[in-house]
């Protein structure tokens, strides 16, 4: 029997990586903005 | 029947009661146009993230995307990366500059950046036309749900949707809409969170589902669409999201540019949760009900026949929330374009704050009822209509917004040509060539954006540059702009 292909599982890994990396950048850049204003 | 259960009655009553209470609260906190269109610029990252999610997640997701997964399986899920690439583009190039500009409508940006009332008027008119298509999809989805679950004529549910959405939009504008959006995002996530285990229990788990779907058609568990087809859809969504007026308007309501970037991150997280859940639910429905009369009915049948009364009620309210929140955001943008950009600029330039607010509220009702007629014609499935409007928005707005915020040399003539040319190219390609050239894989959105970009660059280079004073807020460092805005001691007298 053939189940879900690799693309099904790959999506979850890729989505988690995207969410994590984006949020790290957004919150880091907000902190650096605040420090540069001081 | 879920609709006859006491639980459903309690959940819906609670939901409606809270929405009405927020609407009334918003009414007493909305005194000016800035309050109505930008919530006094007080929204933080968590509420802001929920607002962007509620705006983005619509009937297109709960009815259209779920139906698309039901019909075609897994591969549609990769279109989300186009959506998130659009958000990233917006966070990098659009949101910080727009928030710093701090206007009220998207057409405000066009008017200021290109120093042109004509460009402003054209953008406002195109936004109203294109978003009428978008609202048509939302109303059609409401009709599908009401037919499948309540056995009520679509027209009645559409009128109920317009009435309830218009109520809290009119009452409190963006302020109450933002808190209702937060509630709606939470409801969508809670409905999906509790619904998933129940549905997976029915199909015997993910592995069993994958094996069963693979035995029906291997493309459902693997790749139904080619990468070229998915890329075309992802590009359409990405280009639209990068310059989506209904999201851009919400940036204005947040505290500052850093808040907008954080809110986009919160929103992408929520979208990933919702998108993954919707895929699994769509696939599960194919496993449970292989032959439904319409793919758009998968979500309604799921809520009414598969889930328990409490979870089904939560899921149903989540679905209604998705439709209401997107309709509400679109109404804010279109009514804002009508009152702020057309009425106050072309008809009554001396309009008071009170008059603008009144036109805004009347606009919400009028522009809410226009798509009703189109929704009753049933031009196509919900996902197709959402995709069509995405292509038009991207074709006329991506270039003036993203190129306009990154290339100083863009001019008013270039912007007008880009908007008109992109819109017409997308229209002509959709009506005359889309089917004929489908095999070549060239999509209307690619033709529209390419035409718009070519016209913007070529005509801008042939016409005089935009005055430096108009460009300063978008291109000069924030400190210089702030210094220029403060009058010198001599000027102060």
* Oligomeric state as shown: heterodimer
Give the count of helical stretches of chain B: 22
CA-CA gap between termini of chain A? 62 Å
Q: Quick one: overall form of chain A?
A: rod-shaped
Low-confidence stretches of chain B: 485-493
> At the third CATH level, what is the topology name of chain B?
Sodium/glucose cotransporter
Radius of gyration of chain A, whole Å: 17 Å
Question: What CATH first level of chain B would be assigned?
Answer: Mainly Alpha
Largest sheet of chain B: none
Helix segment tally of chain A: 1
Q: Which class of secondary structure composition applies to the elements of chain A?
A: mainly alpha
Strand content of chain A: under 5%
The CATH architecture assignment of chain B turns out to be: Up-down Bundle
Low-pLDDT runs of 5+ residues of chain A are none
Report the average pLDDT across residues of chain A. Answer: 86
Tell me the major beta sheet of chain A: none
| CATH superfamily (homologous) name of chain B | Sodium/glucose cotransporter
Q: How many domains make up the 3D coordinates of chain B?
A: 1
Q: Roughly what percent helix of chain B?
A: over 70%
Element-level helix/strand string of chain B: HHHHHHHHHHHHHHHHHHHHHH
Keywords, separated by commas or semicolons:
heterodimer; A: 38 residues; mainly alpha; 84% helix; 0% strand; rod-shaped; B: 493 residues; Sodium/glucose cotransporter; 81% helix; globular; disordered C terminus
Can you give a write-up of this model?
The complex is a heterodimer of chains A (38) and B (493). Chain A is mainly α and 38 residues long. Chain A has one helix at residues 6-37. Chain B is mainly α and 493 residues long. Chain B has a single domain (2-478), classed as Up-down Bundle (Sodium/glucose cotransporter), CATH 1.20.1730.10. Chain B is 81% helix and 0% strand. Chain B has 22 helices and no strands. Chain B has helices at 6-28, 33-38, 45-56, 59-72, 80-101, 106-113, 117-150, 154-203, 206-216, 218-221, 227-242, 245-251, 257-288, 298-306, 309-347, 353-377, 382-406, 412-433, 444-462, 468-475, 478-485, 489-492. The interface between A and B is medium-sized, with 22 and 33 residues.
